[in-house]
Design a protein that fits this description.
By secondary structure, the chain is α/β, with parallel strands linked by helices. It has nine helices and 13 strands. InterPro entries: BMP_lipoprotein, Peripla_BP_I, PnrA-like.
Amino acid sequence: MVYRLGVIFLILFVLGGCGSSPLTGKIEKVGLLVPDTISDQVWGTKGYKGLLRIQSVFNVDVYYKEGIDNEAAIKMAVEDFRKKGVNLIYGHGSEYEKIFNDICKDYPDIHFVLMNSKAEHDNVTSISLEGKAMGFFGGMTAAHESKSKKIGVLATQKWQPEVKGFIEGAQYVDPNIEVITEYAGQWDDAEKAVELYEKMKKAGADVVYPAGDGYNVPVIEQIKKDGLYAIGYVSDQSELGENVVLTSTIQHVDEAYELTADEFNRGALKGGRRTFDMQEGVIEMGAFSPVVDPSFQEEIKGLIEQYKNTNKLPNE
């Protein structure tokens, strides 16, 4: 059932059969908190798919709650999960950083996992999906296909490593290319993102990288109407138009969730930062558009393999 909960505190969905138990190891039951919805087909959906992978691999009961985006809701949801016997909780976003770090000492038998945040205790782990390399190869593609020699990256926050990677990758292909950068400030502010895209278009950008999971689809739809090119973000977005989306920078959050669950089950998941990149298969490039010439596609694929083996980008 994939719809927003009417009463986010009181309704809890149980996935899977009752009474199942883990095959081996520490996992008992697993919970997922989502600040928005699991049915957005991008970020929230990826978290939900990760939960389903954990359910399938470890044969455990799993639970999720949507719309958990404030302190009171988070505390109530965690307590609900505790009563259900959950001992591994995923907070699907950085929104959970302060609360998880504050309350973890009250739940020593629960391990908390969240995204792109500080993790200050032994039972709190922050998953970091490294974005620089995927941004680099996206930037290479954008620069290679640009006719105006002006491209844009429309991100949410200045700290996003994919922004720096995109700029470096574009300049690796063409040192003289102009990269226009804009920041939406909110991951889901589609209206502002489209406005910033229009600004980039007027400045001459003919390839734009909307690096925000809550607004990339509406921005790409507008790019399609304008007959320009896009680089997809988070998921393979070639289905939005294979002649529009040159390639995508993909983050397999579901794979990262399964890997951390496996580490927890083996007693190997430590508190602190846990990073994933292309080497683990959590980050990858999506399908290339047929408008990207095959020789360039092969060049990028070779550079990606080189990066996996050496952990060094082509400009390093």
